[in-house]
Amino acid sequence: GDSVTQMEGPVTLSEEAFLTINCTYTATGYPSLFWYVQYPGEGLQLLLKATKADDKGSNKGFEATYRKETTSFHLEKGSVQVSDSAVYFCALSDQTGANNLFFGTGTRLTVIP
Amino acid sequence: NAGVTQTPKFRVLKTGQSMTLLCAQDMNHEYMYWYRQDPGMGLRLIHYSVGEGTTAKGEVPDGYNVSRLKKQNFLLGLESAAPSQTSVYFCASSYAHIGEKLFFGSGTQLSVL
Questions:
Q1: Nearest to residue B25, comparing CAs of B80, B76, B109, B94?
Q2: To the nearest whole angstrom, how far is the Cα of B106 from the nearest Cα of chain A?
Q3: In this complex, do B106 and A41 lie within 8 Å of one another by their Cβ atoms?
Q4: Best of B34, B68, B98 to disrupt the A interface by mutation (most A CBs within 10 Å)?
Q5: A21-56 per-position pLDDT tens digit
């Protein structure tokens, strides 16, 4: 079935470092892909999404490109801030007609000053 | 602007007890969802609703029941709680189908002893 495999964490970076969080997927058909972020004590928030191959989603300095050839949707940011410390979830939309998102296990990012 | 509100935020139950989690949204969204979040497993869909008076099963529906009597409310019930239901529960809503942005509540931490 459809699934998402996400980079194990936790990830600790210094402020202004480059961030990559890897996400690969297995799916039949053409799912939409998402990155959600969960700040401490809060629910998840949509960070960005892409709906077809080669689409690039971007928001708040974060980017991810839908790569069908490598079945990947890696999250990147050129210069992280302390305020980016959170848990990041990759997800893909169910293609069977059920209203569901398949989430990865999440990657905790801590940015230190 | 409240968004999605979950009550209670924390609850401790004994095995066999029952309880209801309430989710309320003020965005006039048609779709509502209940997820559980467990360590190392990401979020998994329990039940969802595509409109007032409708409910459908997700990935892990066993041991739970739901009701959507009013468009703005989505209730999750545990009839006889088990330790395996210890988890963080998130409610979410969206204007349309799962490919649209999900808005999440801040979660309910449930412990079943």
A1: B94
A2: 4
A3: yes
A4: B98
A5: 999 999 888 889 999 999 988 889 999 999 999 999
